[in-house]
TrEMBL record:
Assembly notes: Binds calmodulin. Interacts with NDUFAF3.
Lineage, broadest ranks: Eukaryota, Metazoa, Chordata, Craniata, Vertebrata
PANTHER family noted in UniProt: NADH DEHYDROGENASE [UBIQUINONE] 1 ALPHA SUBCOMPLEX ASSEMBLY FACTOR 4, UPF0240 PROTEIN
Protein name, entry field: NADH dehydrogenase [ubiquinone] 1 alpha subcomplex assembly factor 4
Listed Basic and acidic residues bias regions: 17-27
Gene Ontology terms: biological process: mitochondrial respiratory chain complex I assembly
Family: Belongs to the NDUFAF4 family.
Region (Disordered): 1-44
A Gene Ontology term for the protein's cellular component: mitochondrion
Superkingdom of origin organism: Eukaryota
Length: 179
């Protein structure tokens, strides 16, 4: 509602106000500083002569100057050359089995890939007596505390299939013919 009211006042007498602004005389610009008028001085012969004159003393001094520039040698960055020895991570090969093409081949120690995580969660779910937290920690080079947290908070999905007898079957009706 407020937008409509302000629009009415804003559009009131627009044509007359616009024509009044257009018919006003343009304001005269402020005078320029005298040094800004180089085009007036460029026409004088004294300045042209001074610009075109060559000074022999300055030319001899200029010939004595010799500048030699050399670029610093370019260092090619090597992939593993700049790493500090203490920060290199130990890598281990993943234990993927038949799912090799789906995941990475090497993982840092203390970490697991997604396929490995799903595999170990599924193994623990199916056989919890064999795949204990201690065995999983030793097998995948993980800390026992992290494995316990993983087994406690992450549970793989289970798929339930309903038997065919309990599904509601759609009974076929005979179509009535219209006459």
């Amino acid at each position: 509602m407020g937008g409509r009211a302000t629009r009415v006042f804003r559009n009131f007498n627009v044509e007359n106000r616009a024509s009044r602004e257009i018919s006003k005389e343009k304001p005269t610009p402020a005078p320029r500083h005298p040094t800004a008028r180089l085009d007036a001085m460029a026409g004088s012969p004294d300045i042209k002569e001074e610009v075109l004159r060559k000074d022999d003393r300055f030319l001899t001094l200029l010939k004595d100057v010799y500048v030699e520039s050399r670029d610093p040698p370019v260092r090619v960055k090597d992939g593993g050359g700049e790493r500090l020895p203490g920060k290199q991570e130990e890598k281990r090969l993943t234990k993927l089995g038949h799912l090799e093409g789906l995941d990475v081949k090497k993982v840092s120690k203390g970490k697991i890939s997604i396929v490995e995580a799903l595999t170990l969660l599924n193994n623990h779910k199916l056989q919890p007596q064999i795949w204990t937290a201690e065995k999983i920690a030793a097998e995948y080079s993980l800390e026992l505390k992290e494995v316990n947290s993983l087994l406690e908070f992450f549970i793989p999905f289970t798929v339930h299939e309903f038997p065919k007898e309990t599904k509601k079957a759609i009974k076929s009706h005979k179509l009535k013919q219209l006459t």
